[in-house]
């Protein structure tokens, strides 16, 4: 499918999605949200894709939501249309999603990265939720996800002041999984995605679902859910192959 705001490719079990609005610094507008949803739908359905990688350019991942589009909106229009709600579908995907971030990831761009399962950042990456400077607040989960990852104090400080942090600080406070040189970002991110895509599809999706439960309820509930998922994995052919390969001292060959 031809997209106006994205570039897409499939590489060895990886669904690669590149934000492609360079004239607007990859600002997230309605068209991009709709096309991203369509691209992710395809990746979710594809039997050959095991991991999704979302990236942008070398100097900007996404500079935020499209202010030109938003400036004409009013209430109750935003409420009735549930504006930005379709972007939530990124976090609802069952297959793992990695964000490879170089340059600025601000506002909605940062929120998009936070919806992914983890972020690999280039050394030049910058993260922030500066919506307060525009007289608005984050509207795609930024306050909630940032507070869960970085803690209440860091989330308060960043969102109330609009301060932008660098990749090193983002890694220290748990927002970013890894920081790598800019020239290595693509190779490292593809290698991580390839590793995920080569694992048991069932096990990977179950792990993702279990970890997501951490923020949704009490520890006891999460432990019970994890245990039930662990029990059920023994009904899969991947479990048989993975453990048989370990016993046989060979590489497991999981079916896509």
TrEMBL record:
GO BP annotation list: fatty acid beta-oxidation
GO MF annotations in UniProt: enoyl-CoA hydratase activity
Family in the record: Belongs to the enoyl-CoA hydratase/isomerase family.
Any Pfam family hit: ECH_1
EC number from the UniProt entry: 4.2.1.17
Protein's recorded name: Enoyl-CoA hydratase
Lineage: Bacteria, Pseudomonadati, Pseudomonadota, Gammaproteobacteria, Pseudomonadales
Entry keywords, A to Z: Lyase
């Amino acid at each position: 499918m031809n997209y106006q705001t994205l570039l897409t490719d499939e590489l060895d079990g990886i669904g690669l999605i590149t934000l492609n609005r360079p004239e607007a610094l990859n600002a997230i507008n309605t068209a991009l949200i709709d096309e991203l949803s369509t691209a992710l739908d395809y990746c979710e359905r594809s039997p050959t894709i095991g991991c999704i990688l979302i990236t942008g350019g070398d100097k900007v991942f996404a500079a935020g939501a499209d202010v030109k589009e938003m400036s004409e909106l009013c209430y109750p229009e935003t409420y009735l249309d549930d504006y930005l709600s379709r972007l939530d579908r990124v976090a609802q995907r069952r297959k793992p999603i990695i964000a490879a971030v170089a340059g600025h990831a601000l506002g909605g761009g940062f929120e998009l990265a936070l919806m992914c399962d983890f972020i690999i950042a280039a050394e030049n990456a910058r993260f922030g939720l500066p919506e307060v400077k525009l007289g608005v607040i984050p509207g795609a989960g930024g306050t909630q996800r940032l507070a869960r990852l970085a803690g209440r104090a860091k989330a308060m400080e960043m969102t109330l002041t609009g301060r932008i942090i660098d990749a090193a600080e983002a890694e220290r406070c748990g927002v970013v999984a890894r920081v790598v040189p800019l020239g290595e970002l693509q190779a490292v991110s593809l290698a991580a995605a390839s590793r995920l895509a080569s694992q048991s599809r069932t096990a990977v999706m179950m792990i993702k679902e279990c970890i997501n439960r951490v923020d949704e309820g009490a520890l006891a509930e999460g432990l019970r859910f994890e245990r039930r998922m662990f029990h059920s994995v023994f009904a899969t052919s991947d479990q048989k192959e993975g453990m048989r390969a370990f016993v046989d001292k060979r590489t497991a060959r999981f079916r896509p």
